[in-house]
Amino acid sequence: MSNSELLVKVKELLDKDKAPEAKSLFVRINPDDSVEYYLVKGKLEQKFQNWGEAINAYSKVLELDSGNLEAANNLNLIEDILNYWNTDMFNP
Fold first, then answer.
1. Are 23 and 48 in contact (CB under 8 A)?
2. CA 11 to CA 84: how far, in whole Å?
3. DSSP string, 3-50
4. Would you give the DSSP letter of residue 64?
5. In this structure, what is the dihedral angle of CA atoms 82, 50, 45, 86, given to the nearest 10 degrees?
6. Measured between alpha carbons, how far is 23 from 28 in angstroms, rounded to an integer?
7. What is the phi-psi region of residue 46: left when phi exceeds 0, alpha when psi lies from -120 to 50, beta otherwise?
8. Cα 46 from Cα 84, distance rounded (Å)
9. What would the pLDDT profile of 24-51 be if each residue is shown by its tens digit?
10. What is the CA radius of gyration of the chain?
């Protein structure tokens, strides 16, 4: 299978909530400098809550395509998750 075919298959698995299968297939893909590769990598890392890797992948997408709304929205979502602050946790 080519890289593009593998990326399509990984996206399908992610859409079906089969992240472990998607991850095992993703490692067979030769890394390249394409927007599609880094978007899939970001989604996969986000599924496993590997926030740093997801941020790096989405940042790379924006480096390659500064107008990519999906990457920008996912970066904002991750920032919101990481910046979440529940004040009730600190008030006895």
1. yes
2. 28
3. HHHHHHHHHHHHHTT-HHHHHHHHTTSPP-S-HHHHHHHHHHHHHTT-
4. H
5. -30
6. 9
7. alpha
8. 16
9. 999 999 888 899 999 999 999 999 999 9
10. 15
* pTM of structure: 0.86
Q: Which residues contact 17 (CB under 8 A, 6 or more apart)?
A: none
Q: Give CA 92 to chain center in angstroms.
A: 37
Q: Which two tokens stand for residue 13?
A: 């698995």
Contact 28, 51 (CB under 8 A): no
Cα 41 from Cα 31, distance rounded (Å): 10
Residues 61, 68 contacting (CB under 8 angstroms):
yes
Tokens (6 digits) for 69: 């709304």
